[in-house]
Amino acid sequence: MKTAWILALAASCSSTAFAAGEADPIAPKFERRWVWVMCNLQVAKEADRVVALVERAAAAGYNGVVISDYKLNFLDRVPRHYFANAERVIAAAERTGVELIPAVFPIGYANGLLSNDVDLAEGLPVVDAPFVVDGREADLETPDRPLLRNGTMEEALADRLLGFNHQDEPGKCSVVDRTVAHDGIASVRFERLSETPNARLIQTVAVRPRSAYRLSAFVKTQDLRPTGGFNLMAIGKDGRRLTFHEGGIEPTGDWKEIEVVFNSLENSQVNIYVGMWGGREGRLWVDGLELRPLGLVNVLRREGCPLTVKSAVDGTTYREGEDFEPVRDPLLGRVPYEGEYEFRHAAPRIRLTEKSRIRDRERLLVGWYHPVPVHGSVVMCCLTDPKVDLLLRRQAESVAKLFRPKTFFMQHDEMRVAGWCASCKGSGKTPGELLAANARRCRQILREVAPQARVVVWSDMFDPNHNAIDNYYLVDGSLAGSWEGLDRDVVIAAWNSGKAAKSLRFFADRGHEQIIAGYYDSDDNLSTWLRGAEGIERVNGFMYTTWSSRFDDLERYGRAIAAPKAP
After folding, report:
1. In the predicted model, what is the mean pLDDT of the chain?
2. What residues in the chain have per-residue pLDDT under 50?
3. What is the DSSP letter of 292?
């Protein structure tokens, strides 16, 4: 569909007027007018909410509702009443003429998928970590002193904390508070954020290359805004960010422990940061900043994540089951529930067998793989392990049986960790090629399960103007070429509004039909997309997309995207 005609009309309607609700801009009658709904149909009240949204969407001119439900990852484990609730939603859709589109294959936000097999997380390698044997057990050899100096915030000259390379404006925005502390007698308090929006501590710390670390801090807040400005992170000396965790705190809250886990990769030094970026108001206290090496916490055990144990003296390789008992972390991916990876618990030790060749006090070099959660708890699955494909097929079959859909929505999205494990490395493919191969397999699975069904996928991981780039987050290499895995019949849900025209043109030139995934809890996202879509063929859908379940503007957007076509 060409949209040039509409832009001339939309130009006369300011985006400000649209945002204020004074006048809606005229917009094309998109063939597909969808609503994105995140829900938990296991809860009866949630099913009631979705039924009401389906009816409301139909009345507002929408003809499709995309159902994103975490429980679709394990329909074989949900209670019977889940299906009764789902059938009520299905009946509402049939009654109102709204198509239900289930979201499947959460390759980026993979925790639900991983709850079926927690070892299938993508793992980063630890190489030759020093272990020492004590009696019949071996554990990680740890330094005698804390890796990070003055994490207790108690060593200070006035308000200047000792041990840190940088502290933003001591005595003004960063103050040593000797009346409030989590432990000990002091903390650091960040305040006057409207005057100094960046309020941070930075310390350079020596680390072992290719090792696992846990960085943690206790945080307390009072009227803090924006909470998303809080950050606890490690950056390599090469400038590459190793952790990704913003926010995770309330505007006002008592002491809470925040943790991030990282692999040092090739770095022998990292820069540790904690504090506020872009703060506007309120106060933030930080105490108990700690960095410690991690042993076999959440050790992954699958063929693509081998465990190696050898002598630090002569390199003798020891065998699991002969020289030491099988190694597993019983809490791997199970805290607080299946599919969640928490690193506070104790690491399992290596236990020697009765006939072990390993001797007491012997020093060992141990290698293994561990997951890295990003943005709090999000964990990525492996792109190459065939067991992942089996889980995807099982999900497709169970979802198809329940919803009998005409369209599937593939959730390849923000895949932030990829390409590290031995199976991915052994493929000889780049991350982009791995993702392309995965997309082909996913499309084939859906073709076999529901031959006539349409397939939609998020745009970002296949878009060179967005996330299909080099060294995206913790992807080991380039994602270029990922788009080669998309058949021309796959519909693109485009959401790169910052480069709308470039992204839409890229997929149009490749022959894809496109649906604009707009709104994103914004007052005016439609005008941006209409400008970007000027002259581009086959942009024939719009999805009202909200992450915060904000449906305030559902009717207004419904009127805009369903307006009569100009003569």
Report:
1. 93
2. 1-27, 565-567
3. E
